[in-house]
Amino acid sequence: MSQQLIQSDVALSAEETRQIDAELAHMPQKSGAAIDALKIVQRHRGWVSDESLIAIARYLEMSPETLEGVATFYNLIYRKPVGKKVVLFCDSVSCWICGCDGVKQKITEKLGVDYGETTADNQYTLIPVPCLGACDKAPVMMVGDDLHTHLDNEKIDQIFAGKLSDGEGS
Amino acid sequence: MENSLREKVLTRNIGPDLVPADMESYEANGGYKALHKVMSGMSPNDCLEVIKASNLRGRGGAGFPTGMKWSFVPMGDKCSPGHKYLVCNADEMEPGTFKDRLLMECDPHQLIEGMILAAYTIQADRSYIFIRGEYLVAIERLEQALADCYKRGYLGNNILGSGYDLEMHVHTSAGRYICGEETALINALEGKRANPRAKPPFPQVSGLWGRPTIVNNVETLCNISHIIDKGAEWFQSLGIGEDSGTKMFGASGHVKNPGCWELPMGTPIREILEKYAGGMADGRKLKGFLPGGGSTDFLVEEHLDLPMDYGSIGSAGSRMGTGTMIILDDKTCPVGMVLNLLRFFAHESCGFCTPCREGLPWTRQVLEDIESGRGRKEDLETLVRQVKYIGAIGNTHCALAPGAMEPLQSALKYFQSDFDAHVEQGCCPYTQGERV
Ligand SMILES: Cc1cc2nc3c(=O)[nH]c(=O)nc-3n(C[C@H](O)[C@H](O)[C@H](O)COP(=O)(O)O)c2cc1C
Ligand code: SF4
Ligand code: FES
To answer: Edge-to-edge strand order for the sheet containing A146-148?
Structure first.
């Protein structure tokens, strides 16, 4: 963790603290809400910056180092900025058998990004995700909150052309 | 779910249209009958005895007898004052597994009723549904169902006037396969890095925040209300062979009709693959299959007539695991498939112990070399050694690493000629290396 973040602090918004408090009500210890708090702040701010992390740690009475250790452990806590929507692309076994490698290549061509990268217009960040529990409809991915199934090149064109509104593709 | 003769238990509210059951439709179909029955006169011990007698075994992969697990929780005077916890394991990240999602999305109340009854049996006052964050639809429906239960007096203080109190909460995870391991899950719920804990102490005695805790799989818990309602003997009679009840079985890969079906425990594999999955897709032949998720050993054609139950699949050298089969066809490279799995396991290693943290990436590297045509004969011997050391129970802190070795060790056994061909031809005979 870098030096300067020890000083800076971006206070949690009223809405963020309200949502974190709701989680705290279900936990006998404040640190129990660490992951919830990280996810709440991420939902509001898109990602978890060093400043956000410090603010959360302070609120939960944890050391920033401990919270950083928690944040970096989990795949879905973003410690770098991401695009407006995250594309969670399943690259696990059933999707692989059903040809997800080809679909991934198509996405990379279409959006011009590889895993971990964000499109130039800041719309999408592409991230691999383990099995999404929809293996009978492989290959699959999530774009934002929506699951898209039975992916092929044509579907990728539709989904990212904005011709299909999200969700209809599944 | 086309077979009308089959008794539907877990999926009785799940039709082909997948419309979720709300409180009204759940109750109209006998839902919360078991809860009323228990709250108006069954003791926790009565419930425990029924579950024990039913011979229900955990559906999360290991098949541990549920009643026995619950019986380790200290009760009454033997328990020091404080909370007790019941946790539903809804992490479902085992590659190739897609059964719990369906149960939660389409019938959330069935899970909640099972959880209330399980919590009552061990006299837990707090319960959590630990669910992976990507299951947004399931999360929303479970939260709605919980709110409806609080309104109805099925949760909260003095449930149905019985004097029993229970809080229930949905915790969404942030994505890490190891969170599904029950002691890692407990750490995750406490807001920590999800490294597995040493056992003993077992969670039943000292789990969440040091208090007695039971962790059960979604499907396991979905069975509870039915067993309480209809009895242990009825439940036993549902299974065809030695195991009780029904099971969610599934098939993915190149079959005609991939999907998930509730069938009697002990249904022959061939019946699942041919009758329900519709056989292999056109132009493809069966080469092998993982019977219950990515961390189970391959089985092959000669095993098709085995019944899907814990004992039979175990004697054949594999595990029934989650019961959702991953089908390998003759046009898909077995080395590539095992490499895909090893990439997953290496990535998801929690890093706590060396054989897993260092060993799995090494195994992945060797497989990458072989698949891309850079493999040498010695590499095959290296794989055998890795299986021996990383796969041995006791060499690692938890079961992730041995699980990771299961598909590899059985692939080496059944598909040896494919490994050899990669080395001899200097490329993948299936794709000429395209896929790596
Ligand atoms: C690496 C690993 C991942 C696991 N993931 C899950 C999971 O996602 N869901 C689950 O129910 N059990 C999972 N398990 C098994 C749990 O540790 C535990 O045995 C299970 O939740 C107990 O429930 P049951 O007795 O009802 O089967 C996993 C085990 C290991 C070693
Ligand atoms: S076997 Fe792997 S996942 Fe399990 S504790 Fe060791 S490093 Fe972590
Ligand atoms: S492997 Fe992609 S959804 Fe299961």
So the answer is: A124-129, A85-90, A141-143, A146-148
pLDDT in tens, B102-124: 999 999 999 999 999 999 999 99
Q: Has residue A16 been placed in a domain?
A: yes
Section B91-107 average pLDDT? 97
pTM, two decimals, is 0.95
Domain count, chain A: 2
Half-sphere exposure of A88 (CA within 13 A, CB side): 22
Architecture of the domain made up of B23-238 = 3-Layer(aba) Sandwich (3.40)
What phi and psi values does residue B129 have, to the nearest 5 degrees? -105, 110
Kindly determine whether residue B194 and residue A96, on different chains, have CB atoms separated by under 8 Å. Answer: no
Range of the domain at A132: 85-160
A35 and B174 within 8 Å at the Cβ level: the answer is yes
pLDDT of B241 higher than 50 = yes
Distance CA B264, CA B238 (A): 6
Q: How far is the CA of A3 from the centre of ligand 1 (A)?
A: 40
CA of A134 to the centre of ligand 3 (A): 5
- Sequence spans of domains, chain B: 23-238, 251-329, 334-425
**Ligand 2 pocket test: which of B181, B193, B195 has the largest number of ligand atoms within 8 Å of its C-beta?**
B195
The answer, yes or no, to whether any atom of ligand 3 lies below 6 A from the CB of A135, is: yes
Q: Is the pLDDT of residue A167 over 80?
A: no
Q: Are residues A42 and A94 in the same domain?
A: no
If you average pLDDT over every residue of chain B, what do you get?
96
- Average pLDDT over every residue of A128-137: 97
In chain A, residues with a C-beta closer than 8 Å to the C-beta of B326 are 93-94, 97, 135
Chain A nearest-CA distance from B252, in A, is: 5
Say which CATH topology domain B334-425 has.
de novo design (two linked rop proteins) (1.20.1440)
Of residues B381, B393, B387, the one with CA closest to residue B420: B381
As assigned by CATH, the class of the B251-329 domain is alpha beta
In ligand 1, the atom with minimum distance to the C-alpha of B63 is 27
